[in-house]
Design goal:
Helix content: 40-55%
Strand content: 5-15%
Structural class: alpha/beta
Number of helices: 24
Largest sheet: 8 strands, parallel, barrel
Shape: globular
Radius of gyration: 25 Å
Length: 650
């Protein structure tokens, strides 16, 4: 790479080298530098003097790519107002040393006698009240982001169509106020064949996302038609409420509704659900004349999409209110994904903000030696800075609705993101620095404004010093017991007293096997059956590592006086591990509901797509059964005995 190009790359915030998890030093290659510079809006093909001129234009001024982060955060008016990042919200009782606990659940996995084959917002209110009754202060959730209605089988909540909008499949159809007013919808839902189909969807061990989408949209379209007829008068209160919601949500909602209408229109016409970048010219540009005509032709469908978002937001608000009324102090602990899908409404609706021909991912590690490509286009930090970070503030505000805590997935993105140009392997990517101070300032401001605690998912390759900076900003670290080990020495597990206070502690995550599955080597057998090991030797190495992990887990539990009577009893192991987490000084301890119930199938297996039914597996127990499950009672006692209480001590 010539010197002028290297200088421009450095000035633009592209790191010249990094060490991957395999111990390999990887230098920035010229093709990668050129592709990333183009995505950032630079021209890398100019002569050396012009390259230096571009680099000099960045010197001495705040670099949105992170070389010198802009100070300050946007005020509500959008101007940079504060000189430095503030502190995220932490309730006084927690700052003073209080410790509490909560339950994490995949909302879609909840079973009830009344839902339509997928957990919904009414189920959310119920599990929240159950959790509160057992002494919890929050219920953690998977991202509630809007997925892809035209491709409902794409179930991952971490690759959504929009992170601003909500997945309408979580709407409880029979709780929509207009449902009861619509005789046609009530009759449709009461028909024997329809009720039989709903029962089949409820009884299935996996969420049938496509069928759930079909039955819900069928009835909701009928409900919407009735709403428009019944509430047609301009002075009608519900009509005014919907109009106010649409006005408040502004362009992001409008673009989302148009995009979903476009894709559903293509599906109805039998056209393939292509990436929007492969659409006809007129449809690729939201401001084109063709789109103006489509808005007129598809006005009803666009209005229907807006109606779904209005009702989803109302039901989510109601669930959060029911949680707080039921005694769940922090209500919901929501999750913000690191990005939206490449073929998403979010990317289509604001193409200037998206870095083109780039996906974010992770460098090579022991699990993926060629690196990971997550298929999520990043935001262009230069454009974000030019807009005073308003899109980031809006994204945070949308995801703090109803939440007392918010998890930032891959929080390292506040400092740097691993960019992989199209057509290149993950090992050919590069780190691009982000405007940390500015992003942190926005995050702190929104956290305080919404009185929402922030948990930073700081797992994986964490830059030196980042955890300390996040701690100073008031973010809670995300500490997973099965990862908390003395890697620098003998690999033993950390004792509870070694965890930080300003943290959320948990045994495992949704991307890991359940405790029962982990203890029985079930995840290794499953990965072998799926062909995820390079060879038999790799599988045997993993089995050997697991034996060592099990021995070290038992050593930890023995040292804490928590050794199980039967080390092969997975319920005893789970309860002992939860007791270990409960004893940490960390402000929050969160338990996966899967592990309380002894589930043996994972929610998700990273690195797989259709080989395994990711994001579909339901819980083995209904909400009625969970409410009186003795295992939940024992968990509550474990937390209480460790000093984790729903109410702060006076």
């Amino acid at each position: 790479m010539n010197a002028a190009l290297a200088r421009l790359a450095a000035a633009a915030g592209i790191e010249p080298e990094y060490w991957d998890a395999l111990g390999t030093r990887r230098e920035l290659a010229e093709p990668t530098a050129r592709a990333v510079l183009r995505a950032l809006g630079f021209d890398p093909d100019r002569a050396a003097d012009d390259l230096d001129a571009q680099a000099l234009s960045l010197a001495g001024s705040p670099s949105p790519a992170g070389a010198a982060s802009p100070a300050g955060s946007p005020s509500p008016a959008g101007s940079l107002a504060t000189p430095a990042p503030g502190h995220c919200f932490i309730p006084e009782s927690f700052a003073a040393g209080r410790r509490a606990w909560g339950i994490a659940v995949q909302l879609y996995s909840l079973r009830s006698a009344r839902n339509w084959g997928i957990g919904d917002f009414t189920d959310l209110a119920r599990i929240a009240v159950i959790a509160a009754g057992h002494g919890a202060v929050l219920v953690g959730l998977n991202p509630l982001h809007a997925r892809h209605l035209s491709r409902p089988d794409e179930a991952s909540p971490y690759s959504p169509s929009s992170r601003i909008c909500i997945d309408p499949m979580y709407i409880d159809v029979e709780a929509v106020p207009d449902f009861g007013e619509c005789d046609a919808a009530v009759a449709m839902a009461a028909a024997p064949a329809f009720r039989a189909r709903l029962q089949t969807l409820r009884d299935a061990p996996l969420v049938d996302h496509r069928s759930v989408c079909e039955v819900k949209l069928q009835v909701l379209r009928t409900v919407f038609a009735s709403f428009r007829a019944t509430h047609a008068h301009a002075d009608d209160s519900r009509r005014r409420d919907l109009a106010a919601f649409v006005l408040a949500q502004g362009e992001p909602l409008a673009r989302f509704a148009e995009f979903e209408a476009l894709r559903l229109s293509r599906a109805a016409d039998g056209l393939p659900a292509l990436d929007w970048q492969a659409w006809p010219d007129g449809w690729r540009d939201p401001d084109s004349a063709a789109l103006a005509r489509f808005r007129l032709e598809a006005a009803d469908e666009i209005a229907f999409q807006m109606y779904l978002q209005w009702e989803a937001a109302r039901q989510l608000d109601d669930a959060a209110a029911a949680a707080r009324a039921g005694g769940l102090e922090l209500a919901l602990y929501r999750d913000l994904a690191v990005g939206a899908a490449r073929d998403s409404a979010e990317a289509w609706g604001d193409q200037e903000l998206i870095a083109t021909r780039i996906s974010v991912g992770a460098p090579p590690d022991q699990f993926s030696r060629s690196g990971q490509n997550w298929g999520l286009p990043p935001w262009n930090p230069r454009v974000l800075a030019a807009r005073d970070y308003r899109p980031f503030a809006a994204l945070l505000a949308a995801n703090m609705a109803g939440a007392g805590a918010l998890r930032i997935d891959h929080v390292m993105a506040l400092m740097r993101l691993f960019w992989i140009p199209d057509g290149m392997a993950g090992s050919e990517g590069a780190y691009v620095r982000q405007p940390f101070d500015a992003l942190a300032a926005v995050l702190a401001e929104e956290s305080r404004r919404h009185r929402c605690m922030i948990i930073g998912e700081d797992l994986g390759s964490v830059p030196d010093g980042l955890r300390e900076r996040l701690h100073g900003l008031g973010l809670l670290s995300y500490r997973v017991l099965l990862f908390e080990r003395h890697w620098e020495s003998d690999g033993r597990f950390r004792l509870p007293g070694e965890y930080p206070q300003q943290a959320l502690a948990t045994v495992a995550t949704h991307d890991m096997p359940t405790i029962a599955d982990f203890w029985r080597f079930g995840d290794i057998a499953r990965r072998a059956a799926l062909g995820l090991f390079q060879d038999d030797a790799a599988r045997e190495q993993e089995i050997a590592r697991r034996h060592d992990e099990r021995w070290k887990v038992l050593a930890l539990l023995h040292d804490l006086g928590l050794a199980p009577a039967d080390p092969e009893d997975t319920q005893q192991i789970a309860e002992a591990l939860h007791a270990a987490v409960a004893r940490t000084p960390s402000m929050l301890a969160v338990v996966q509901l899967d592990d309380v119930l002894g589930e043996t199938e994972p929610a998700n297996i990273p690195g797989t797509n259709r080989e395994y039914p990711n994001w579909r597996r339901k819980l083995s127990r209904t909400l009625d059964e969970i409410a009186c499950d003795p295992r939940l009672e024992r968990l509550a006692s474990i937390m209480e005995d460790a000093g984790r209480r729903a109410k702060p001590e006076k």
